[in-house]
């Protein structure tokens, strides 16, 4: 029987308090957001135009991608990163880019004060307990024509008996308007909206072992509403 823990316990786990996640990943190039997501976030924002677009990066690590984007985008663009560990040191140019904010917080306990045109989570959901809750919340933080893009491994979602709930979860996400690209394990949503998925969070297993990336990940357990 797997011992499930709460999200507050999970944040103290060595699997989750990962000091290497997204530390070196930049905006473009070999080890980059552009490569992992299949599009360059800064270029995507620039093409939108408008007065002051905003990008929220969840599980942002050192915030290198955001910091690089700050020098490519107009000064009024708002860039926010949220990470449990946070940057090991503030960016040296942070004072000259007041709209670049790197927040150290547990995602389960944090909520923005505004909506965002782009929300990303590059290989970050693997370390969350309530992954589906985080996805639904992110969808509600988008602007009406904004985009959410995150890596998501449906194989990490389990039922209380330990069986994999991947097929049911992907079907529910698609029914809610998400696109799932299985080859990249990339979840996309265009257009902010309220999302209610038919699952109740039961707890997390930080000992689930490596996922497809080869890195340790968290198992997320849910009960279907019909099973509750």
Account of the protein in words:
The protein is built from 6 helices and 10 strands. The chain has 228 residues and is an alpha/beta fold. The model has no long low-confidence stretch (mean pLDDT 89).
Annotate the secondary structure layout:
Elements (H helix, E strand, L loop, with lengths): L6 H4 L22 H5 L3 H8 L5 E5 L5 H7 L7 E6 L16 E5 L11 E6 L9 H11 E10 L5 E2 L7 H10 L3 E3 L4 E5 L8 E12 L5 E9 L4
Parallel strand pairs: 1-2, 1-4, 2-3, 4-5, 6-10
Antiparallel strand pairs: 5-8, 7-8, 9-10
In a nutshell, what does this entry contain?
This protein is of the alpha/beta class and about 230 residues long. It has helices spanning about 5-10, 35, 40-50, 65-70, 130-140, 165-175, and strands at about 55-60, 80-85, 100-105, 115-120, 140-150, 155-160, 180, 185-190, 200-210, 215-225.
Question: How many β-strand stretches?
Answer: 10
Poorly predicted segments: none
What radius of gyration results from the CA coordinates?
Answer: 17 Å
Q: Going across the major beta sheet, what is the strand order?
A: 3-2-1-4-5-8-7
**Structural class given helices, strands, pairing?**
alpha/beta
**CATH class, anyone?**
Alpha Beta
- Tell me the distance between the termini: 19 Å
Helix content class = 10-25%
Number of contiguous helices: 6
Beta-strand content estimate = 25-35%
The domain count comes to 1
Shape: globular
| Main beta sheet strand tally, sense and closure | 7 strands, mixed
CATH architecture: 3-Layer(aba) Sandwich
Tell me, rounded to a whole number, the average pLDDT. 89
Give me the strand/helix succession: HHHEHEEEHEEHEEEE
Q: Predict the CATH topology.
A: Rossmann fold
